[in-house]
Amino acid sequence: MAAISSFSVSLSIPSEKSSFSISPSILSSSPQFLSKFLHSPRTSVSPFSLKISCNASSTVSAQPTPLTAKTELKDFLHISDFDKDTILRILDRAIEVKALIKSGDRTFQPFKGKTMAMIFAKPSMRTRVSFETGFTLLGGHAIYLGPDDIQMGKREETRDVARVLCRYNDIIMARVFAHQDILDLAKYATVPVINGLTDYNHPCQIMADALTMIEHIGQLEGTKVVYVGDGNNIVHSWLLLASVIPFHFVCACPTGFEPDEKTVEKARKAGISKIEITNDPKEAVRGADVVYSDVWASMGQKEEAAYRRQVFKGFQVDKSLMDIAGSKAFFMHCLPAERGVEVTDEVVEASNSIVFQQAENRLHAQNAIMLHVLGK
């Protein structure tokens, strides 16, 4: 005989409808519950009408769903995990929610009552402020967990951190060193996990960059993006985007500092975009819609900074390089910038520099990503 798994109780009121779900466990522990409920003023006063239906299951008794796996994969770890339509929908949503926030309207509160755990193995300004502010603006509460709060992988295993935090929070964002850490968090957490940066890629930054290009160029597809500098996690993210959306991507870097070969091959095999890796920045930037730069020595590489400055001579983005790119080219940088090293002060402050628009769009792109992974 099928067991009753729940009672669905609906109260039909002329101006509204309220529904409640009563668990059999409540009835078994308190047999008087249903009687009291049915005879309470809320349920007995005319003209309310009451309807009770039973949902049957084939099991002898109702069992709680085990908290062991996601019912639907909604992590945001790599841009290439999604198809073109999904990426473009997220960007469209970013534009809509940005306009709403800019209007001063604060009635859109989809994250009300929700919390986000923010894990930072690396210090940050933009990532922390943009995620925390964005989640708060949309009604949620973000919790900062710095490098000394968890010491993930040292004080406590990543899989244990994931399984604890997902019981307290609705979403997890992590900015870490090893890419395996973000993969492990996503594997063991039962709530969505967002990649706030790893040594391998930085998908939230590139989504903000794509949003900025759409705003200033009018489109992303068919553009030419030229990255000048180290073949780092930013380059990997551009390559993963190029495996989904068609555009021309060029990475100009010194010999020995090319991006990961497997990631380059993945982008090329997708057959979506034109991919070039070169050691000639001057030739690379010709006809560019965007010239993009990043620091030559990332976090964790500062002991190599002096050596890299020698190797990267000729890869500085200065006015002469931007002149070769042409008058329509915009300059972009994920920040923080070492002015006078990978880019000159003159280029950062030029009228075609949109680096601070990029920085602002981190908030809006990430809001759209969070809305997507939470199904809002």
TrEMBL record:
Signal peptide: none annotated. It comes from the Eukaryota. Residues 74-215 form the Aspartate/ornithine carbamoyltransferase carbamoyl-P binding domain. This is ornithine carbamoyltransferase. It catalyses: carbamoyl phosphate + L-ornithine = L-citrulline + phosphate + H(+). Gene3D superfamilies: Aspartate/ornithine carbamoyltransferase (3.40.50.1370). GO terms for cellular component: chloroplast. Residues 221-372 form the Aspartate/ornithine carbamoyltransferase Asp/Orn-binding domain. It is found in: Plastid, Chloroplast. The keyword Transit peptide applies. GO terms for biological process: citrulline biosynthetic process; L-arginine biosynthetic process via ornithine. Its main location: plastid. Keywords: Amino-acid biosynthesis, Arginine biosynthesis, Chloroplast, Plastid, Transferase, Transit peptide. Its EC number is 2.1.3.3. Belongs to the aspartate/ornithine carbamoyltransferase superfamily. OTCase family. GO terms for molecular function: amino acid binding; ornithine carbamoyltransferase activity.
